[in-house]
């Protein structure tokens, strides 16, 4: 009796392939890293927006009510004080020195300055109308830069200006921050920027974004 051995096809033993898994894992890690970076950037910009907004809002509140910081108690706007008189009358250098002196304490200057502080502060805290806030804030910071006139080494009376930098000061830094916040849509995180952008009058007027 013949014994026939049937040859069975060996399926063999194969190690699992990790190449594709490694590629997929690397791709997922890259996407995850980019997402994490985007989220971190959004929250950093949102925090910068809120802090900058508080700077403007605090200036408005202190000048209005005289909390005893930059504005002495009892000398706030509601007490009859002028938010612009002290600063503008103290301008002692620059090409607009006499112009600023003539503006100091004028009702229109007080109202325009305070409306700017309040409007910019609310826009930044809420995350709305950041483009408009950037334009208004940059104009305000430019005027304040000219009022302090950092390029001057000496004041009009000949005394040292004590300027620490002939060009860059905090007014320019604030202006750049305002522009950056507007360009990066920083109001979409920790703000109502997305809801604001969906409003019909904002969609048809992009400059309000």
Would you mind describing this structure in some detail?
22% of the residues are buried. The protein is globular, with a radius of gyration of 30 Å. The model is unreliable at 1-10 (pLDDT under 50). The chain has helices spanning 19-65, 85-89, 97-103, 107-126, 130-148, 170-183, 193-198, 200-203. It is an all-alpha fold. Helices cover 58% and strands 0% of the residues.
Summarize the structure.
The chain has 8 helices and no strands. The protein has 209 residues and is mainly alpha-helical.
What is the helix/strand order? HHHHHHHH
Overall pLDDT score: 90
The portion of residues forming beta strands comes to under 5%
- Number of helices in the DSSP assignment: 8
Oligomer: single chain
Relative helix content = 55-70%
| Derived structural class | mainly alpha
Radius of gyration: 30 Å
> Sheet bearing the most strands, described?
none
How many angstroms does the end-to-end distance come to? 94 Å
- Shape field: globular
Low-confidence stretches: 1-10
Number of strands: 0
